[in-house]
Amino acid sequence: MTAAIAVRQLHKHFGPLHALRGVDLEIRPGEFFGLLGPNGAGKSTLINILAGLVRPDAGSAAVLGHDVQRDPVAARRALGVVPQELVFDPFFGVRDFLMIQAGYYGVARKHRAWIDELLRALGLADKADANMRSLSGGMKRRVLIAQALVHKPQVLVLDEPTAGVDVELRQTLWAFAQRLHGEGMTIVLTTHYLEEAEAMCERIAIMSHGTVVALDDKRSLLGRHPWYQVHLRLASEPAELPPEVAASLASREHGWLVLRLQRGGDELSRVLAALHRAGLAVVEISTQEQTLEQVFLELTAGHHLAAAAGD
Ligand SMILES: Nc1ncnc2c1ncn2[C@@H]1O[C@H](COP(=O)(O)OP(=O)(O)OP(=O)(O)O)[C@@H](O)[C@H]1O
Ligand SMILES: [Mg+2]
Q1: In the chain, what are the domains?
Q2: Where does the pLDDT of residue 136 fall: very low under 50, low under 70, confident under 90, or very high at 90 and above?
Q3: Residue 19 CB less than 6 A away from ligand 1
Q4: Which of 52, 129, 190, 270 has a CA that sits 20 to 30 A from residue 37's CA?
């Protein structure tokens, strides 16, 4: 089966900066895929290479088997990209802008009904004739999403589509993305809202410093991490904690002790015994599974870099 996106040993320098250091990535057709990583990790650089906007120094990238450098027209036809930056020509009305975009792909006439559908689905129907200049930031974002979809690409890449947009647009966008995904479109999502990635994405890659440091099913990514959190509330605020407890303490939150413990070990019983010996009564206890955010922070903080990169 041809990969929706296949990236091999991709390198990119910006002057002395090595922004991509040998990225390997394969995204399957029909996947809802999350591309995560801290600011500057190289996500947008990778996406811009896929979109043909940035030329790599070495390595290859292909969309549905079409190499972005050797076969750019076919690659671009297969791909829709919603860029992170809001850039467009301000001199057109919304519908005209979309028709011109569709014209680039030679699909303007055929897809007129689809453009109307996009305008409706993205809540832009009453802005169809408004000038692009007059739109709010969130409305412009919607137009960029419509623009990426005018030619009905098989692969859609969303580079932080929900940064700075209101709750209503986020929900509209997620419902729409789910619909497209249900119709078979491959969707690649970059976001800093980890709960969004956790809810939407099936597999997730985490980038850090220009490489992919983890790539796995969301479930396995969450499951393979041996840590979990235990929240304990004590009857009274102790002046000092026993060393066994202090050693596992992650934070104190509103009268709760938050402990970070190794799954499957005997740390919890040692902590409880130490509290008991110190005469500190536990009045409430709750445990919390690792969230994507915690996994993400651990991976990008470098704790598990070596192990994860070997996957
Ligand atoms: N055109 C450019 N010229 C110089 N440096 C660049 C250029 N584009 C990106 N960079 C640098 O390359 C690195 C990766 O940037 P990139 O935009 O790919 O990161 P990102 O993962 O998308 O981050 P963010 O989450 O902030 O969007 C950064 O250090 C950035 O400053
Ligand atoms: Mg970016």
Answers
A1: 5-222 (3.40.50.300), 226-289 (3.30.70)
A2: confident
A3: yes
A4: 52
